[in-house]
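ok so dumb question maybe but i'm new to this and my supervisor (M.) told me to 'just get the structure for Tagatose-6-phosphate kinase' and walked off. so i did the thing. is this what she meant?? sequence i used:
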Amino acid sequence: MIATHTFNPSVDITYSIEPIKVGDVNRVKDMIKNPGGKGINVTKVLHILGADYCAYGYLGGSHGEWMKEALERQNIKTAFTSIQDETRQSLAINDGVSQTEVLEQGPTILKQEQESYLETAKSHISEITVATISGSSPHLDETTKYAHMKRVLELYTESYNIVDTNAKELKELLEQQLPVHCIKPNQSEFETLIDETNLSIEECVKMLKSHPFFRNIDVFLTLGGDGAVIKWKDEVYRATIPRKEIVNPVGSGDSTVAGIAYGVHEKLDPESMIRLALACGTSNALQTQTGHIDMKQVETIKKEVEVERL
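this is what came out, is it supposed to look like this??
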């Protein structure tokens, strides 16, 4: 089974306003409301893929209740921990040219809520083959984000663990050599992680092969429309994706993580896993909803993804 973790889920609201007028009254042309947060997006895509999974996370207040009910309506399998504080909202404003996001910080997770979360995760630990931890951490009472992440990761000693979080948190995890087996940075996050800027693809490949951070882990470095560079075990691959007219890119990285997790769980060969992961990420970008893929599109796009071993 695949365990997905979302420490800081959100109610994602997207407003379409064309054109947006700063400092003036704006009327919403269209509104989409989704259960969100990076790990929730991963979960929704795993559900569409037909994976065996369970979603873990903190939910509280009226926003958390709405998210729980919305996911139940989609038959998403969850094991959430209830909290006293309110689950956050995230607002995206799309003006037809660009998207502006306003992200709330999130709730405070009390000490007893953290302990309850760990106990819930432990209850199915023997069944887990792959674990994903995605997104930011909220404020954690009496502990640090690193310490909380460490406690969760150390539960998963027998699984393949994928972590997709901001470069600052990720850097600390890698420095301490916690059980992280795969990361999925975009180029900006990758450069922040290794304190470099404006790297060419060739320089990225060199860093993947030589930087000590990546010696014992798999790295799926996404490059937006330029595809990805992937270090998998002792091999490095260059993957390119077909050009498509993007509808909404939010959640594409999470959809890629879902494809990686599913591929590892199903023991796909590296090239098949890469094609699936990028097809999931690309299909998500062609949807209005976040964390959503079209399986027919995925099957078509998989055939169009080109993978070369370097």
